[in-house]
Amino acid sequence: MKKYIFLFTLIFSTLQISAQTFIDRTTAPVPGAARTPEIASYESFTLKNGLKVFVVENHKLPRITMRLILERDPIVEGDKAGYVQIAGDLIGAGTKSKTKAELDEAIDFMGAGFSTSSSSITANGLSKYTDKLLSIFSDVLLNPRFSESEFSKLKGQMISGIKSSEDNADAMSQKLTQASIYGLEHPYGEVLTEATVNSIKLEDCKSYWETYFRPNIGYMVIIGDITLQDAKKKISKTFKKWKKKPVPKASYKKTTLPKSSRVLLVNKPSAVQSLIWIGNVINLNPGHPDIEPLRIANKILGGGASGRLFINIREDKGYTYGAYSNFGVDRLNSTFSASAKVRNEVTDSAIVEFLNEYEKITTEKVTELELKAAKSSLSGSFGRSLESPSSAASFALNIARYNLDSDYYNNYLNRIENVTAKDVLRVAKKYISTEKTTIAVVGKAQDISSKLEAFGNIEYYDAFAQPTSEPEFLFTPENTTLKDVLSNYYKALGGLEKLKKLRAIYQESSIEIPGAPQKLSVIRAKMVPNKVLEKQTMGSMTINKTLYNNGKAEKGGMRGSGPVEGLELQELINQAKYVVGKVGWMDRLENFSFDGQTLISGKEVYQISENLGGIGGDVESKKIHYFDVASGLIYQSIENQESPQGNISITSTVLEWEEINGIKFEKIIETSAGPQKFKITVDSTLLDDDVKESVFK
User: Fold this and answer.
1) Which of 3, 152, 450, 483 is 20 to 30 A from residue 76's alpha carbon, by CA?
2) In-domain check, residue 22
3) DSSP strand E in 127-209: where?
4) Torsion angles phi and psi, residue 189, rounded to 5
């Protein structure tokens, strides 16, 4: 499985290579005097219907970008949570004169980009197609089709996403923290469920469009190869039929800190690491003078690899691959928070270090060295952002939306430079809570709950932020051993002796990868005791091919070609011993341990840990297997692996089995690797005499 993970990374990642000269990292560079930034100019005008338009001319490239943004209050969706998002997607799914396919074809013909959301419409492409883009823009805006079939498709996609998030620690943590901070009845705390999506009607989406897509709350941003005069003419003509109408307002009480710190836990029994989130609600409006001091405080605390959290929890303690902090700016409410993914056994120790760093930055002044380095980094980031013409449009838009001073962004560097260590300490005390904080953890409760009790009473929640009872933990059933579980597994497959008698197998599979242009095709073949073939292709392109034949192996494909040696060769030799690789477990029982019985997704399972040969039995060298108590078959396997993107958890769940000649084989396997989820389907299987030796040439 790990081969597939790295192949996906190979296909969809860009290798970045940078050369670095030697830098003395013991001293921070001395920043120069604050500069006056050179921000591209913009022009603005307002149509009679109330639409505000901002134009940034840039004639360097023959391209244009147009974006409409609606300034509305947040909406509580209640028992129909999700309808606002679906409405936004549905607006772009065809017009009264064009189906979605026809709309997509027209956009693709121009090589343009077009997207819609619940509060925006964006179009970009070559400036020679400006008139055609505006025509599509207005057609989508004023005449959406609201197709029943597209509506059903979008609901299905949203429900699929919800189901996928049930086992995703990041999604669980986001739902838990938002719901616990703001409350389930707050627009920022609502949680989408299958039930809320199923209750959405097409009329709900139509009503949203009719109510909120109005020019009097709209801002139109145009960037690129167009003059102000031309923009005025075209925009006035395009949107003259768009009628203004009063839009509902909504107000919400400011969320406050809890009376004392809280400890929240979502039990993820299969987790080999804990996702920790520690934070609190803050009130910080756009344009507030505390933003720059807090930005520097955050940079020093956890704003990157030079932050205290990263240096402490990763570099010094080795608990994680990264620890960071962040904060938001919002007219209603936002949060200051820090987070990391750590090994189960150090969950409590990592939380202690988070709180120690919180305490330090809220009670002690930062050093001048840290202050200078943070200022230099933030000033540099701001300077680089000015290279994009869209920055000027964003600045103009923010000034209008949030009623900022006209020179707000011109003075940004001065505000950064004028921040003192005393200012940083003041805002840290004001916005970073150490006594009324929320500690939210997604992890294996059996391994971490007793340790979390040191921080307060634990509140348990499910994957959708609903309160739940304390979970059932692993227990050791009477008269059940490791050999019993494995024996039942082999019996469920068809019998150990029958499995050992298999001499050859040839399987063709397909893998659906989100975002990929087509499926990945996989061929896996074995001929006991000395032949193995693994080949992955996409269309006519060979991604990877590995062939082992009688003691020698070669590989080819996108990763290059050459002989296979060392541990990788030994792995192929081991694979060739049995057609069903897991039969080989009986040869190394000392690498397995029976942990007990528990529940996974409501299913009673036996848990077995496999030591993969890592140093000191570290969690990253172990694989956890879950066997269905009822059927005896393997249900799920979890492994923690290091990838080019850092440490990721890989979960494989067998959704369907197929019986061939009295032996069961895995038919459909769903695998999640970090945020990515894909499905492997075995399309055909040949056994023994049906497998030709010529396959391995």
Assistant:
1) 152
2) no
3) none
4) -110, -5
Q: Are residues 261 and 372 in the same domain?
A: yes
Most confidently modeled range among 165-169, 360-364, 570-574? 360-364
Say whether both 101 and 232 belong to one domain: yes
Q: Does residue 15 carry a pLDDT above 50?
A: no
According to DSSP, the residues that pair with 124 across neighbouring strands are 65, 113
Residues 338 and 354 sit within 8 Å (Cβ to Cβ): yes
Question: Mean pLDDT over all residues of the chain?
Answer: 89
DSSP string, 243-311: ----------PPP---SS-EEEEEE-TT-SEEEEEEEEEEEE-TT-TTHHHHHHHHHHHHSSTTSHHII
pLDDT at 29: 52
Q: Which long-range contacts (CB under 8 A, 24 or more apart) does 409-414 make?
A: 409/37, 409/39, 410/36, 410/37, 410/39, 412/37, 412/292, 412/382, 413/34, 413/35, 413/36, 413/37, 413/379, 413/382, 414/34
| Total structural domains within the chain | 3
Report the percentage of the chain scoring pLDDT > 90.
73
Rounded to whole angstroms, how far apart are CA atoms 570 and 591?
A: 17
Evaluate whether residue 513 is within a structural domain: yes
* 371 contact partners, CB below 8 Å, separation of at least 6: 296, 300, 419, 420, 421, 424
pLDDT band at 600 (very low <50, low <70, confident <90, very high): confident
641: its two tokens: 């692996």
What value does the mean pLDDT take over residues 205-218?
Answer: 97
Alpha carbons 26 and 201: distance in angstroms, whole number: 61
Rg, Å, the chain Cα set? 29
Query: Which of 429, 461, 493 is the endpoint of a domain?
Result: 461
pLDDT at 616: 35
Q: Can you list the positions of beta strands (E) in 369-489?
A: 438-443, 458-461
CATH of the domain at 521: 2.50.20
Residues 224 and 296 in one domain: no
Q: Give 319-352 pLDDT, tens digit per residue.
A: 998 999 999 999 999 999 999 999 999 999 999 9
Quick one: 351 and 385 in the same domain?
yes
What's the rounded Cα separation, in Å, for the pair 166 and 171? 8
Residue at 564 is within a domain: no
Q: Give the residue numbers spanning the domain of 280.
A: 253-389+403-461
Query: What is the value of pTM for the model shown?
Result: 0.78
| 234 and 295 belong to one structural domain | no
| Per-position b or e across 554-581, b if 16+ CB within 10 A of its CB | ebebeeeeeebeeeeeeebeebbebbbe
Residue 187, pLDDT above cutoff 80: yes
Q: Same domain, yes or no, for 314 and 336?
A: yes
> What is the β-pairing status of strands 273-284 and 262-267?
unpaired
Q: Are residues 259 and 194 in the same domain?
A: no
What are the tens digits of pLDDT across the range 396-416?
889 988 999 988 999 999 999
Same domain (yes/no): 425, 522: no
531 pLDDT above the threshold of 60: yes
Q: Do residues 588 and 574 touch, judged by C-beta distance below 8 A?
A: no
Classify residue 551: in a domain, yes or no. Answer: no
Furthest-apart CA pair in the chain: how many Å?
85
Can you give 623-657 as a three-state secondary structure string?
EEEEEECCCCCEEEEEEEEEECCEEEEEEEEEEEE
Give me the CATH number covering residue 457. 3.30.830.10
Task: Please give the structure tokens belonging to residue 337.
Answer: 């928070």
Q: How many residues does the chain have?
A: 697
Burial of 474 (0-12, 13-18, 19+ CB in 10 A): middle
Question: Among 415, 438, 461, which residue terminates a domain?
Answer: 461
